[in-house]
Structures are given as structure tokens and as C-alpha cells.
Amino acid sequence: MRRLLLLRHAKTERAQPGERDRDRKLTERGRADAPIIGAYMVRHRLVPDLALVSPVVRTQETWQLVADCFTKAPRAVKEERIYNAAPATLSAVIRGTRNAPSLLLIGHNPGLHELSVALIASGDVNARERINEKLPTSGLVVIDFPIDDWSELHGSAGRLDRFVTPRLIAEATD
Predict the structure, then answer these.
(1) Contacts of 45 by beta carbon, 8 Å cutoff, 6+ apart
(2) Cross-strand pairs, 136
(3) Could you give the 3-state DSSP secondary structure of residue 166?
(4) Residue 106: beta bridge partners?
(5) 20 to 30 A Cα–Cα from 16, which one of 24, 102, 113, 160?
(6) What is the dihedral of CA 98, 90, 163, 109, to 10 degrees?
(7) Is this structure's pTM higher than 0.85?
(8) pLDDT (tens digit per residue) in 77-87
(9) Cβ pair 90, 112 in contact under 8 A
(10) Are 104 and 7 in contact (CB under 8 A)?
(11) Own/partner pairs for 131-137, CB < 8 Å, 24+ apart?
(12) What is the pLDDT of residue 12?
């Protein structure tokens, strides 16, 4: 069994004139939302063995805020191929991963959203419909696969365990 956690970076400021997309930082809301997801992951024992994180500022900031929630943060690797990647590239990154039964990938849309939709074959129908609509910032998708190695990953093979966002967490606690 393998577990994949896909996390879209938290809310980001708009690019300023002349600013590179890679240098965009989190907004105040993004800095508030990321720890909500991190705390949720800790509370529900969704601690990955490895985190693969896009190297851009907003994903690195998101990871740091999430990682600060763990007693002992998992190993993290900056993975250049995640930045603005298509689903096929993201799948290749995942398939190349070794020794990580539970893998967290922090990246960007539209690639993460399209990958989520492509990998999920079963699970909660309402959550699947919400994912089909969009993967918002700080959205966390947890997918389980009946495989022994990431190299066996293929489309429509996963079971959606859960889909959460800071907003859904807040609604559940109201």
C-alpha cells in the first residue's frame, strides 16, 4: 500500500511588475492557512515519509509552515521538476521515488489538480466531485494505492481517502 498526499501551495500574492513568478510569496491568508493544514495532518496522522517540494518561494514557505506543525518534520527535497509541471511529469517524479510508502508532493495548479483527477478511481463521491471542480490553494488530497512500489503508479488506480481545505476544516469545527 502507498499513500500520496498532494498539497497545493497556500494563497500567494500577485506578481509585481518585473517580479519573477518563482519569487511570489504567501499572503497573510496563505501564512494562516498552511499551519491549519499542517495541524490537520498531525491530528489525523498524515505524516509523510518524504516531502517533495517545488523549489519556488511560495511552495517552500508553505512547506515550512506545514513542517513546523510536526514534532519531527519528515525529510524534504526540493524538486525542480514539480514547478509548473504537467501531470505526466508529476507522475514521473512520483514513480521515481524510493523508500517512501507515504509521499507528500507540494506544487502548483493546474498540474496538481489534473493529476488528482487522473489518479482517483474511487472514494467519497462528494469529495471527488469537489476535486473535479477545483483544487484551491492549501487544498490537500490524500490518495491510497494498492501497490508495493511507486514505480507501479498509473492513472485511475487510487482511492480518495480525503480532500480537505482550511475552509472545509473550519466548517467541520463550527
Answers:
(1) none
(2) none
(3) helix
(4) 7, 53
(5) 113
(6) 150
(7) yes
(8) 999 999 999 99
(9) yes
(10) yes
(11) 131/160, 131/163, 135/6, 135/8, 135/109, 136/8, 136/165, 136/167, 137/8, 137/9, 137/10, 137/11, 137/12, 137/30, 137/33
(12) 96
- Single-letter code of the amino acid located at 113: H
Task: Report in angstroms the alpha-carbon separations of 10 from 36, 62, 108, 158.
Answer: 11, 6, 10, 24
Sign of the CA dihedral with 85 first, then 86, 88, and 91 last:
positive
Q: Rounded to an integer, what distance in angstroms lies between the CA atom of residue 88 and that of residue 44? A: 29
Concatenated DSSP letters of 135-152: --TT-EEEEEES-SSGGG
**How confident is the model over 107-120, as a mean pLDDT?**
97
CA atoms lying within 13 Å on the CB side of residue 66: 33
Give me the residue label for grid cell 495532518. 41
Q: Calculate the alpha carbon distances from 23 to 9, 11, 57 in Å.
A: 13, 14, 5
pLDDT tens, residue by residue, 4-52:
999 999 999 998 888 899 999 999 999 999 999 999 999 999 999 999 9
46-74, pLDDT tens digit by residue? 999 999 999 999 999 999 999 999 999 99
Stated length of the chain: 174
Residue-level pLDDT at 17: 87
